[in-house]
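Anyone opening a protein record will find just a pair of labelled lines. The record below illustrates this layout.
***
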Amino acid sequence: MIFRNTLNGFSALLFAFVLFSIFAAESDAQTRTKRKSRTLMTSQLQPAPTTEPEIISRAEDYHLDTPLVSPAVESAMRTIDETSSATEKLIADLNERIRVLESNKKDDYDQKQKRLALNLDILSKAEQRAESLRKQAFDMMERETVIKSKIEQIENDLRPENIDRNFAFIGSLRPEEAKDARKKSLESERLIQQNLLTEVQRTRATLDLNVQKADLLVERLRVRLEADIDAALDEDPQRP
């Protein structure tokens, strides 16, 4: 019996609460409808402004004293900017160094090309000089041969039987004096040719020595030039 009375009391309270909730909801809906209607009527009845719209600042609604970015983030961003600037500076410095190195390399390559051209010209002139000396030595050798032939002919003419044979068909009142004069003339000519032969032989010996030196110089220049050419080909910037 007690339990039933309690249940009936609880049911009555629950029913009263539901009725109160429904009444409150309807009242709130009516209030909102009235406010909306009032707002619409106010908007419709409000006259159009005759002046420019006024801009109302809302700055006081915001807390300007409060930073938008935290100090830690600002520090990190500042560090990133500094690092980026340092990196850009380093890259620019490296690019400048590379440009200078490439320029120096190109200048060095041009200098090597000029040196090669100069060495080639020196080699060509050395070869021409060696060839000229060789030709002079050959001329001296031919001249030496001619002089030796003359000396042999003079010595053959100086033989007494040949001198006598030359005057056998020539009439003379003083044949002995004529023979002596002929002999002296031949001896003088032989002396001249012998002196000339000595000079030619000395000149030829000097030329032979100079030819040897010139050939050695040409060989050295050729070896050095070939080595420089090989090195220049290996360092050619146009080669892949």
The chain has a mean pLDDT of 74.
